[in-house]
């Protein structure tokens, strides 16, 4: 039922979907107060210098923009590549050419920031190599089916996150751009990278850095900003050195650039997810802070 309801919404024009998004903003923020306790707690810990009024203002803008992202996600399910190429661009697509022209794939590390669902469209329309989106299946089968269909279109394919390592090694002779959203929280039992992020000890997935060094692929941070409603621009920023197999701390570089973007426009990050689920073990190293402070925290 949910699948067909979402499918029906994709036939609506974008202005109507924006109205639908505004309606959901009112419902989720003022009436249902959906996950407001999580968003407020996350924001207060991330911006301890801000007062309650400032936190409320950021949270309100975030929920409004979440409605916009939902509207644009529904609309793009039926949009073609030509239309999408006018809606989301890449400021510097030539930055990957020295690598792809020499037979190297590239990894693009994004976040739940701005409109992350449009990244795969940007990669498939503005880069000269096939785009591959790495995704984590959603528990709700109907929603997962809809999202997978929405993300699959000419010029792009999908790979489940659990198959990512195997597939990237299997395809190592194929030149592709692998795009993944990397700010999700790993399970407590998994290997992780701990960093002081937004004033908090925060766990990030590891593995992308190891794969990049294994296949000697350069890694780029995807920095997205909203030009105006319905239009976005991406800038690709290198997270590795020229060889792609150096000792650069890819994950820590990613964390620092993500934090920079969030500080610039905090309402564009996804504050309703539970990023801080468990504490760091004293035996696990902490990055993003001086060694003296880290030792005290341990």
How are the SSEs ordered, and which strands pair?
Blueprint: H1 2-9, H2 14-31, H3 36-46, H4 52-76, H5 81-87, E1 88-90, H6 97-100, E2 106-110, H7 119-126, E3 131-135, H8 141-151, E4 156-160, H9 164-170, E5 177-181, E6 192-197, E7 200-205, H10 208-214, E8 219-228, E9 231-238, H11 250-264, E10 286-287, H12 291-297
Parallel strand pairs: 1-9, 2-5, 2-8, 3-4, 3-5, 6-10
Antiparallel strand pairs: 6-7, 8-9
Q: Care to describe what's here?
A:
There is one protein chain. The chain is of the alpha/beta class. It has a single domain, classed as Glycerol-3-phosphate (1)-acyltransferase (3-Layer(aba) Sandwich). It is built from twelve helices and ten strands. The chain has helices spanning 2-9, 14-31, 36-46, 52-76, 81-87, 97-100, 119-126, 141-151, 164-170, 208-214, 250-264, 291-297, and strands spanning 88-90, 106-110, 131-135, 156-160, 177-181, 192-197, 200-205, 219-228, 231-238, 286-287. The protein has a seven-stranded mixed beta sheet, with helices on both faces. Strands 7-6-10 form a three-stranded mixed beta sheet, with helices on one face. Helix 8 links the parallel strand 3 and strand 4. Helix 1 (2-9) runs parallel beside helix 8, helix 3 (36-46) packs across helix 4 (52-76) and helix 5 packs across helix 7 (119-126). The longest helix has 25 residues, at 52-76. Residues 290-298 have low confidence and may be disordered.
């Amino acid at each position: 039922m949910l699948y067909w309801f979402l499918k029906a919404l994709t036939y609506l024009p974008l202005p109507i979907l924006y109205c639908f998004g505004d309606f959901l903003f009112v419902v989720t923020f003022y009436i249902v107060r959906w996950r407001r306790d999580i968003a407020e707690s996350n924001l207060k810990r991330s911006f301890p210098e801000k007062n309650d009024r400032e936190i409320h203002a950021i949270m309100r803008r975030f929920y409004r923009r979440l409605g916009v992202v939902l509207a644009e996600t529904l609309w793009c399910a039926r949009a073609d590549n030509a239309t999408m190429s006018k809606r989301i661009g890449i400021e510097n697509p030539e930055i990957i050419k020295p690598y792809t022209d020499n037979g190297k794939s590239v990894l693009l590390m994004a976040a739940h920031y701005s409109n992350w669902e449009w990244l795969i469209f940007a990669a498939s329309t503005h880069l000269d190599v096939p785009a591959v989106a790495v995704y984590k299946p959603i528990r709700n089968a109907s929603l997962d089916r809809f999202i997978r269909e929405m993300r699959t279109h000419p010029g792009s394919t999908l790979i489940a996150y659990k198959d990512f390592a195997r597939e990237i090694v299997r395809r190592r002779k194929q030149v592709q751009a692998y795009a993944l959203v990397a700010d999700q929280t790993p399970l407590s039992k998994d290997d992780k990278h701990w960093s002081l992020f937004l004033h908090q000890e925060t766990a990030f997935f590891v593995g992308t850095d190891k794969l990049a060094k294994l296949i000697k692929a350069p890694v780029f941070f995807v920095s997205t900003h909203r030009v105006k409603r319905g239009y976005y621009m991406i800038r690709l920023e290198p997270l590795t050195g020229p060889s792609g197999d150096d000792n650069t701390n890819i994950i820590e570089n990613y964390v620092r650039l993500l934090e920079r973007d969030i500080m610039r426009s905090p309402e564009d990050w996804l504050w309703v997810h539970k990023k801080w689920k468990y504490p760091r073990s004293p035996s696990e190293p902490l990055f993003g802070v001086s060694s003296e402070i880290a030792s005290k925290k341990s």
